[in-house]
Design a protein that fits this description.
heterodimer; A: alpha+beta; 2 domains; six-stranded mixed barrel; B: alpha/beta; Rossmann fold; six-stranded mixed β-sheet; four-stranded antiparallel β-sheet; 7 helices; 10 strands
């Protein structure tokens, strides 16, 4: 009964000054709209930019690095145990690039429930022969199906079917820049020479565009089998094992564990691409700051309007108190006014924020480096809407707190005697 | 304590302290019994309004004891005093203090809704009944700012009566009204006192008004000189 009465009085006071109320509510609506739009857009962009690298990068990569042995023979000799051994011009040993026992490792990894997916890979350095010119390039031997499901490979194949490298023997998907250099079209045959001077003819079945032009000028993709054939290696030859983790944050410790377990080098994505995370968090921070600043400005608007309303309604407050409303009741009336401005302004803000996001989502955004993107990216994360509504209520509550307190402290005797 | 005593004040003292201490009320004691129509008169500045606000529980800065319906008012919280005003005291001021955002009917209903012992429909009936008694039922649907001064004061009286208070306190109820409206308001008070046995305490400097009440308390320099 009391709550209903308080809401009723608050409503009457609000509607009596509906223009001021509207201005205050528009302030909240505007800031919430901008907050939502800014965050959705910024996060959309963040996801896009991160995705550019993170989606296509293995969370953990197992490989054998070519490097000189740390354990040189002289260090093992008992005669020189107590001395400092200076060795110059150490050469890397004839260590193999392939991962030992790769099939068993892959089997073991597939059983590990921290690992979401495993994709083997071979990299081969080759020359693409175009008449008398040799163009250096890299052929990545991949499993097209695994690569698509784990690293969105098919998204970046702009022409042709990515599965063709699996189905058509001796076929290749060329990077867009590389294809342009070679003047190769789909169906053409390109000639490659391996580092061991063996020549192969490969049929072009598609083009690939990663968004990073330098990459597209050298990269090409073939099936694992084809690559093994080019290199003249047996069918268990694999140089890289790429892992996708269930939880990306587990990558660094797990990478260390696997490096030890499988006696190979392991690199996690955080170490390889640390700059991306920094960029993302700074951008989010900026969006949140701008949104909060907008809300604080709206809060001051509400504060002003409530203060004015209290001065105007001194008489009403006095008579309410004289006829039996306590200071707490009066306090609540003005808090309800503040919160309803926050609530309805915020609600409209969420709606307009969503509309504005939808609109931005429709704006064409074509860039040659991002083949899969047609419009500006927007992230419709419900969490932003939740944060925005909590913020709008909290700010309006804080804005209404001081004026409401002041209203509750109005002394009816002073007002009534003052007339 | 005597059931018939509605309000009792004992040795009330009050001073204003700004900038120097000036005593306003000096050892004021009075008793108001049920059904009495009492007026308080005196020259401007004699402390009669100050006394009224202390008796009404709105001013709590005083020495002495105040009993309303046998209950001591000293040491009660602001919330409890608000409840006492809501339940037992009706107010009529010089200025009407109606809320312009509400209709006449709603203005009258507000203290009744605050009391919260009747449903909204019942409070509405009570309010219409009060408006009927005062002959202004036709104004019920109007907004407060559409009324004339005399009508507003009558609505204010209806509002004071909504919770059937044990005492109605009035501060110069006719101070802002012309002769004709003053007479109407006085007749209403007279009728309330005689027909409804409503206890009334009216502060006024209108001698004619005071002479027609049952009992007149005269004040001078913060003291009661005759009661």
């Amino acid at each position: 009964m009391n709550a209903r009465l308080i809401i009723r009085i608050a409503k009457a006071l609000l509607l009596a000054r509906w223009k001021q109320t509207l201005v205050a509510a528009i302030g909240v609506t505007f800031s919430i709209t901008m907050f939502i739009t800014l965050l959705s857009f910024m996060t959309g962009l963040n996801d896009l930019l991160d995705g550019l690298i993170l989606n296509r990068t293995a969370h953990i990569r197992l490989f054998n690095e070519i490097k000189p042995s740390l354990d040189q023979p002289i260090n093992q000799s008992k005669d020189y145990k107590g001395s400092y051994n200076f060795i110059r011009s150490i050469k890397s040993g004839s260590s193999r690039q392939e991962i030992y026992n790769s099939q068993a490792i892959i089997q073991a990894l597939r059983k590990d429930n921290r690992v979401a997916g495993v994709a083997p890979k071979i990299t081969a350095q080759v020359f693409f022969n175009d008449g008398s010119i040799d163009i250096t390039g890299v052929i990545n031997g991949i499993d097209a199906r695994e690569e698509s499901s784990l690293f969105h490979f098919s998204d970046y194949v702009t022409q042709g079917n990515p599965l063709d490298i699996q189905n058509v023997s001796n076929s290749i998907i060329l990077g867009k820049g590389l294809a342009a250099k070679l003047l190769a079209n789909i169906g053409d045959v390109v000639l490659v020479t391996t580092a061991k001077q063996q020549q192969f003819s490969l049929k072009v079945v598609g083009f690939f565009q990663s968004g990073l032009q330098e990459l597209d000028k050298v990269q090409s993709y073939a099936s694992i089998g084809t690559t093994q054939k080019i290199l003249g290696k047996p069918s268990d030859y694999v140089t890289d094992i790429q892992l996708k983790m269930v939880d990306i944050n587990q990558a660094p410790p797990v990478a260390k564990e696997f490096a030890k377990l499988f006696n190979a080098d392991a690199e996690d994505i955080q170490t390889a691409n640390s700059q991306f995370e920094t960029g993302s968090s700074v951008r989010s921070l900026i969006s949140y700051s701008v949104g909060i600043v907008l809300l604080i400005v709206a809060g001051f608007g509400i504060y002003n309007i409530l203060n004015m309303m209290i001065y105007e309604k001194m008489d009403s407050i006095a008579i309410l108190k004289a006829t039996g409303f306590s200071g707490l009741d009066v306090n609540r009336i003005f808090l309800v006014i503040a919160l309803s401005i926050g609530f309805f302004g915020g609600l409209l803000g969420l709606f307009f924020g969503f509309l504005l996001s939808l609109f931005i989502d429709q704006i064409p955004f074509n860039t040659p480096s991002l083949p899969t993107i047609r419009t500006y990216p927007i992230n419709y994360n419900p969490a932003f809407y939740l944060i925005a509504s909590i913020f709008s209520l909290v700010t309006t509550y804080l804005a209404g707190w001081a004026p409401s307190r002041k209203a509750s402290k109005v002394d009816p005797v002073i007002i009534i005697r003052g007339k | 304590m005597d059931e018939s005593i509605v309000l009792q004040a004992e040795h009330i003292n009050k001073s204003f302290h700004d900038p120097v201490t000036i005593p306003v009320l000096k050892d004021v004691s009075l008793i108001i019994k049920k059904g009495e129509f009492v007026s308080v008169t005196g020259k401007s500045g004699c402390g009669k309004s100050t006394l009224l606000y202390i008796l009404s529980t709105m001013d709590t800065d005083y020495e002495g004891d105040l009993y309303i319906g046998g209950q001591a008012m000293r040491g009660r919280t602001e919330k409890q005093l608000a409840r006492v005003r809501n339940e037992s005291i009706g107010f009529v001021f010089q200025f009407h203090y109606l809320l312009n955002e509400f209709t006449v009917l709603e203005n009258v209903m507000l203290p009744g809704l605050k009391l919260g012992i009747h449903s909204e429909v019942e409070v509405k009936d009570l309010a219409m009944d009060r408006l009927n008694t005062l002959g202004i039922q036709s104004l019920a649907a109007k907004k407060a700012n559409q009324l004339s001064g005399g009508e507003k004061q009558r609505v204010a009286i209806a509002r004071a009566l909504i919770n059937s208070p044990s005492i109605v306190m009035c501060d110069e109820p006719t101070g802002n009204l012309d002769k004709k409206n003053s007479l109407i308001v006085f007749d209403i008070f007279k009728k309330l006192a005689e027909e409804n046995k409503q206890t009334l305490l009216v502060v006024t400097h209108d001698q004619e008004f005071a002479q027609n009440t049952h009992r007149t308390i005269e004040m001078e320099d913060g003291r009661i000189i005759k009661q």
